[in-house]
Design a protein that fits this description.
The chain is mostly helical. It has a domain at 149-392. It contains 14 helices and no strands. It starts with a helix and ends with a helix.
Length: 394
Amino acid sequence: MTAQEWIWCTFIFAFGCCIGSFLNVVIYRLPREKSLVSPGSACPGCGTPIRFYDNIPLVSWLLLRAKCRQCKTRISARYFIVELLTGSVFLGLYLLLFHTAVRPGMQVEGGWFVYCLYLVLVAAFIAGSGIDLELWIIPLSICWLVTAAGLAGSAVGGYLIAPKLLARYSLLPVASPATGALALGGAVGLAVSLGLLQTGLLRRSYEVSEEADGPTEPAPEQVDSRDGATPFGDEPEFNHRLEMVREVAFLAPIIVGAIVTHVVLRGIGPAATWWAGVLEYPAVAGFFGSLFGYFVGAAAIWATRVFGTLAFGKEAMGLGDVHLMGAAGTVVGPVMVVFAFFIAPFFGLGWALFQMFFKKTRQIPYGPFLSLAVFTVMILHDWILNRFAFLVAQ
């Protein structure tokens, strides 16, 4: 590499470490409903504000020998690990995408924009995984951030990257008339379902009445990712199969809306012609392609959640995982998010066996393994498409 490339690599690694430092703040404060901005970082032992020269990513932890300068309270290795991991992932992803033949499509003009979207997804998923490992929850605000970035990025991407190249290399989700119609109908159905929740005609699943005895319901942004357990109180008793019936009722308008819209806009007539014309606009095709990716990613987990719970009588998956994979689908697209769904169990198998034999539990924080699977398909995107072209051919 040239000297300029070495400078770029150093900058990207340092930038990633700085983002990792912020992710440490997110991991600690977000699930505890504390501000991410103020007050500034302080020692958890003595409360002394941490000065800027003691807050340099990686360096300060090493120089201080993992101890507070004032009270000598030990500083968790997690801070160093998250910073190093984020910096390494940022740099490794850059080298793989732009300096190898793993994803040659990324090296087209505008490929940097897709790389930036990937960084948003990776950083958010590192934070979500850190929280999930510690507290067994996935804050929905993290998923919503990635979802918003994916939808907006896919809408803008067609103006920064030639649409033909975007489609050829599948750099960002792009809707066909069929998938776009399904996404539009699903969005209409989702709006109907949310409206029914607001009016009280539909009841939220796993809702705890404020008047009921026992633990209070966790905050909406702190949805647990498995088995109904809440990190801030004892687990209330639920009829899990009944709760799944409520969720199926919530999903029904989405499914019906997608089917009806697909039939109307993919038939023969003025509506179908109009819809095909609308999708000629890159912003529209990108937005609905990303939205379709969201629905596919969320559906894969939600279907597992519903059928698994109905079969075994215990909550099989968490809504946090649903939103996590939905968010991933907005960036990597519907095809890759399905592959990630099937890859994730292989990553989780070793951890599950460890938990079963040494901790005597079958429950695992699944978010980190979903995140790792999404990262894998981002890198092996072309290899997967080449090997399974018959499955993804339109």
